[in-house]
Amino acid sequence: MLSVNEALEKILATIVPLEVIRVPLGESLGMTLAEDIHSSIDLPSFDKALMDGYAVKIDDIVNGSATLRVIEVITAGNIPTKTIAPGEASQIMTGAPLPQGADAVIKVEDTQRDGDNVVIKTTSPTSNTNIIRRGTSVRVGGRVLRSGMNLNCARIGALAELGHDEVSVQRRPRVAILATGDELVPIDQTPGPGQIRNSNESMLAVQIQAAGGIPVPLGIARDDRDILKAAIVRGLECDMLVLSGGVSAGTLDLVPSSLADAGVREVFHKVQMKPGKPIWFGTGRGPTGSVCHVFGLPGNPVSSLVCFELFVRTAIRRLMAIDPATPQAVVGQLEHDYSTRSDRPTYHPAQLNWTADGLAVTLVPWHGSSDLCGTVAANGMAYLPGEARQYRVGDCLETYAW
Prior knowledge:
The strands form eight sheets. This protein has a six-stranded mixed sheet with strand order 7-4-6-5-9-8, with no helix packed on it. The chain has a six-stranded mixed sheet with strand order 16-13-17-20-19-18, sandwiched between helices. It is an alpha+beta fold. It is 17% helix and 33% strand. Helix 1 packs parallel to helix 6 (301-319), helix 3 (199-211) packs parallel to helix 6 and helix 4 packs across helix 5 (255-261). It folds into four domains: 4-18 and 172-319, Molybdenum Cofactor Biosythetic Enzyme, Chain A (3-Layer(aba) Sandwich); 24-40 and 145-170, Molybdopterin biosynthesis moea protein, domain 2; 48-132, Beta Complex (Molybdopterin biosynthesis moeA protein, domain 3), CATH 2.170.190.11; 330-401, MoeA, C-terminal, domain IV (Beta-clip, Beta Barrel), CATH 2.40.340.10.
């Protein structure tokens, strides 16, 4: 049976990124830039003031004091019309172009207006005080963003500043979701005897969105080979198909054999972990011949949640060329004593809170892979190696936020 790391390596070795497309800048959040971006202008494109105040010649200020004649008011968006001569100053607003002859800006708090004059009293300023010079951020031709960067708010803002209303990115994957089982009913129905609501579809859909994918819910497939195979074939039209349920060893766990009937090749089945041991991964092709990567997740909801965060999220990030694709652990300190006897590595739901002393970890009370309500106090999971152990307050644990 594979370890979690071995399973992740097989996923990365199997999946290649999707094709590059052009999208409007406003739709690119969370996507991976597929081109280097160079500046066509100097940034800033002119010398400008960093504060409201007065543009001056620094030699006019002796021991932090001066009285200067105000010759002009310069607001942002307007061009100075006068050159600063000795004994003169221009009132200037934040972001406005610096007038010729000035080499510093004295902030307004260090000044007092007296008719046509301004009285300056400040600590000794130096040349370039409260000024940003042309090209300080980047010169014409300089690289601002590199291919492979994930586009966040600041990077999208930089692209807008450079005039890019469209951008080349790795395409978002379409991820089909198929819940399986005779026991499932839609979430807007009251379950009958022995039935449960299809909670996994809603949970997986938002996990897919959070990871950057586009969820495509396919509803519920009953425990019937023909029905299940037909639903799988529909799912293979997407870049990825995620099934929940039917991957264990029960009489009606039909997913592995139905996937094989649909031409999906198994890469691995079962991973040494808790919850989520029965997870299945493979690849197939849709009706048009396009590749579809397939995950069979256990039906118990916490198993599905954990397997998605470890494996499916990795696959989505790989498809979008996000680096690193694999989960990145953050070490935190346990807030309480805890005893475990599990023989498998366990990903235990946990509450993760940043404090002045670092990341604090609280393992939430949890009754196993079917206990989804037990996870509502959690915002992540903590990794516990597969061994009997008594943990103490302050012990370090690897954690993963979700």
